[in-house]
């Protein structure tokens, strides 16, 4: 029987458990054996108890559990060839030749590197006497399929990542809560949300909550963003709005690349010579990731998990490593390397203050 393993890596996101459940059950359904690699790449490098056989009932009820129940980690050893060599050995010792990884662009980059290096890794294991030729013969090819688990929705080539809609729902719920107190006291709140290179959460939360102003990394405000923001908020106050909500992504900055921090915004809103608003900062932090997945993420994780197993079964040595995407409501397979390169190109463009390029590389249309 063919053995397929599933792993979660990088930051956790709601819906990862739904993806694991779908992979494990689909693999069993099509006559394969299912395995879980615990603690991300650490489990692959260390092997032993961290590579675990999974049965149908082992994942019962996992749809409604937050985070990832098989653990995740950042693993320094896997950046090095020596770590990947250990990983290859542990895969072969467990008879596994297919790995489905749910993680962000970093995890998926590592996965593709592992697959590309696989022939030379197993060759070296034979040369150094760690494995015999007979042991590696059935494992000439490594199959890798990516699932994107990320709350940021920062992966190019897919409309949504597993977890992003749950995080968005969490943010909206928190903003609704601060709005109640904002309106009661006629206060302003600066709400800081996650997103170092991707403003999807901030922007969507802005639309969903009717925020007064939003700052995202891809589209810095004009030179005089201070006046612009104050004017908009003053107008909203004039027409009777008692609450002010400004959403700032953690990676927001101005045209010169200077960070626009929550504290900077608070000072501006509270400035006695200006709006003079009683202003508080709420940094949402890890509550954004927290809790169980929303219905959409459970559905996405399940459909994509099933598709990932199908992609493993369809793979040929010449198929480029795929990841499972969703485009215009259809589950699709896309080349992983291109999507990772595009994702990293956005981050690079933002770092280089080439915002036009960053915007053109994003799938979402942004406009004022
Ligand atoms: P998040 O979006 O939450 O940051 P991520 O998957 O991008 O998730 P990373 O910390 O970049 O998170 O990567 C997770 C792990 O994947 C790393 O700790 C490392 O073990 C492995 N990894 C990442 N990049 C590479 C790489 N270039 N080569 C080998 N392994 C890598």
Automatic annotation (TrEMBL):
Where is substrate annotated to bind? 150-152, 187, 194-196, 250, 280, 286-289
**Subcellular location(s) of the protein:** Cytoplasm
The region called N-terminal catalytic PFK domain 1 is annotated at 1-368
Which residues are in the Phosphofructokinase domain? Answer: 3-311
Question: Where does the chain bind Mg(2+)?
Answer: 105
Q: Catalytic site residues?
A: 152 (proton acceptor)
Residues that coordinate or bind ATP: 11, 74-75, 104-107
What quaternary arrangement does the UniProt entry report? Homotetramer.
Q: Which family does it belong to?
A: Belongs to the phosphofructokinase type A (PFKA) family. ATP-dependent PFK group I subfamily. Eukaryotic two domain clade 'E' sub-subfamily.
Its function, per the record, reads: Catalyzes the phosphorylation of D-fructose 6-phosphate to fructose 1,6-bisphosphate by ATP, the first committing step of glycolysis.
Q: What is this protein called?
A: ATP-dependent 6-phosphofructokinase
Parent protein range shown? Answer: 12 to 379 of 792
């Amino acid at each position: 029987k063919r053995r397929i393993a599933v792993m979660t890596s990088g930051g956790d996101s709601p819906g990862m458990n739904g993806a694991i459940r779908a992979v494990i059950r689909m693999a069993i359904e099509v006559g394969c054996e299912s395995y879980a690699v615990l603690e991300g790449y650490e489990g692959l490098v260390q092997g032993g108890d961290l590579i675990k056989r999974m049965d149908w009932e082992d994942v019962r009820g996992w749809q409604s559990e937050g985070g990832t129940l098989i653990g995740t980690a950042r693993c320094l050893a896997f950046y090095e060839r020596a770590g990947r060599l250990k990983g290859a050995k542990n895969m072969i010792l467990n008879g596994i030749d297919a790995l489905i990884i749910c993680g962000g662009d970093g995890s998926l980059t590592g996965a593709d590197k592992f697959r590309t290096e696989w022939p030379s890794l197993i060759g070296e294991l034979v040369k150094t006497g760690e494995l015999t030729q007979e042991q590696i013969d059935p494992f000439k090819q490594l199959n890798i399929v990516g699932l994107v688990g990320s709350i940021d929705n920062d992966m190019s080539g897919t409309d949504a990542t597993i977890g992003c809609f749950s995080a968005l729902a969490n943010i909206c719920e928190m903003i609704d809560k601060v709005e109640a107190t904002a309106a009661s006291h006629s206060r302003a709140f600066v709400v800081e949300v996650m997103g170092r290179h991707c403003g999807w959460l901030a922007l969507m939360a802005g639309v969903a909550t009717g925020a007064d102003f939003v700052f995202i990394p891809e589209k810095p405000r004009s030179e005089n963003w201070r006046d612009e923001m104050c004017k908009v908020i003053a107008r909203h106050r004039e027409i009777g709005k008692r609450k002010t909500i400004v959403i700032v992504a953690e990676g927001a900055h101005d045209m010169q690349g200077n960070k626009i921090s929550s504290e900077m915004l608070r000072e501006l809103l509270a400035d006695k010579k200006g709006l003079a608003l009683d202003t508080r900062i709420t940094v949402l932090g890890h509550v954004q990731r927290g809790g169980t997945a929303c219905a959409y993420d459970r559905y996405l994780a399940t459909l994509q998990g099933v598709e990932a197993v199908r992609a493993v079964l369809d793979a040929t040595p010449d198929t480029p490593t795929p990841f499972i995407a969703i485009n215009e409501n259809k589950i699709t397979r896309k080349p992983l390397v291109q999507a990772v390169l595009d994702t990293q190109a956005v981050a690079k463009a933002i770092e280089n203050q080439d915002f036009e390029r960053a915007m053109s590389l994003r799938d979402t249309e942004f406009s004022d």
